[in-house]
Amino acid sequence: MPTAEEPQKGSIEADDILDGDDRPVAPDQFDPVYETTRLEIWAYYAYYIGDNGLTLFNFAPTAFQNLLSQAAGDAGILHFAGRDRTINSIVLLANGISFAIQVFIFLVIGSYAGKFFAVIAYQTTLTFWTAAFPGLARNTVELRMKAEEYNDGAITREEYDHADMMQRSRLANMAFYIQSCGEIIILAVIVGVLFGVNVRASEANNNWGLSVLIAFATGVWLLLALPWFVLEKRRPGQPIPPNMNIVAAGFWQLYRAITQIWRLKQSLLYLVGYFLLGDSLNTTVTVIATLQNEIVAYDTLELTYLFLVGIAAQAVGIYSFWWIQQRFGYGTKTMFTAVMVGIILL
């Protein structure tokens, strides 16, 4: 059985891939030292229960919009970025600016690493959390055995790829499902906290209630995130090229991507589609949130009830889609297409 001496994920050059190198497994996959444990997987799940978005992605922007509304008064107009704008316009513009900054940060850092900063911080934590799951899936006992079978010629490349796809789907879907169930519990506790501070007694109480629940959810996030940093195995990552720092390496990777992407047209189309999808999703969620905040007049308790209903529906939807994928063996692309059709219909 192959061993893994100083394995480096991602170190295979683009030319190797383009020349048809048929190596679907990474060196660390054969080393028991990097084998994914059950505790590590549950620590990964727990991190996402905490990183649920209630703080930086949901209630922090609500608090931001709420304070803007109070500052604007009945006129509903504030001066922002060189001209008078409505509250909703300011929130959407702030979201667009944060998305642009996020894109710049990831282009500079590459694969190595207020309202504006809240959204950027949340998306960054989520991005790097998501990037960890392929390594977890690849190093599970089940997939390591499949890699050994493929290496010994017992199964075909297609069979190995299908097992890899299903293991990734299992981890991703179960992470989202468990996160949804955990978030329902957190929201239920928040309802009790909001009654405790009597948020409907006055505008000041409602403002204080928003701050309290953000602080509470942040504390839960910190508590649930700690096990992941302790239990995560430090699997070899992509090395920084010689005579470069992390920023220079990011620009170097960007240059290499630009020069190679024309040879990988499907990857180019995917990246363009992913950018458009990410931008439209962020904009849609922000528009819904701003309108929802306005409709309920920033009532923190009412917003929490709405989140409870939404997250419960989310849990049912995620598990249903995963059950269908397991039952019929559909590929990730098929399920992704089905989800997109559902979103368009909604």
Query: What is the terminal-to-terminal distance?
Result: 51 Å
- Helix-and-strand structural type: mainly alpha
Quaternary state reads: single chain
Q: What radius of gyration results from the CA coordinates?
A: 23 Å
Q: Which segments are poorly predicted (pLDDT under 50) over 5 or more consecutive residues?
A: 1-21, 110-116
Order of helices and strands: HHHEEHHHHHHHHH
User: Helicity range of the residues?
Assistant: over 70%
Number of helices: 12
Side-by-side strand order of the widest sheet: 1-2
Structural shape: globular
Overall description:
With 346 residues, the protein is mostly helical. It has twelve helices and two strands. A hairpin with a 2-residue loop joins strand 1 and strand 2. The longest helix is centred in the middle third of the chain and has 40 residues. The N terminus is likely disordered.
Which secondary structure elements does this structure contain, and how are they paired or packed?
Elements: H1 14-18, H2 38-50, H3 54-72, E1 77-80, E2 83-86, H4 87-109, H5 115-138, H6 141-151, H7 157-196, H8 203-231, H9 246-260, H10 265-295, H11 300-328, H12 332-345
Antiparallel strand pairs: 1-2
Briefly, what is this?
A two-stranded antiparallel sheet has the order 1-2. It has helices at 14-18, 38-50, 54-72, 87-109, 115-138, 141-151, 157-196, 203-231, 246-260, 265-295, 300-328, 332-345, and strands at 77-80, 83-86. With 346 residues, the chain is mainly alpha-helical.
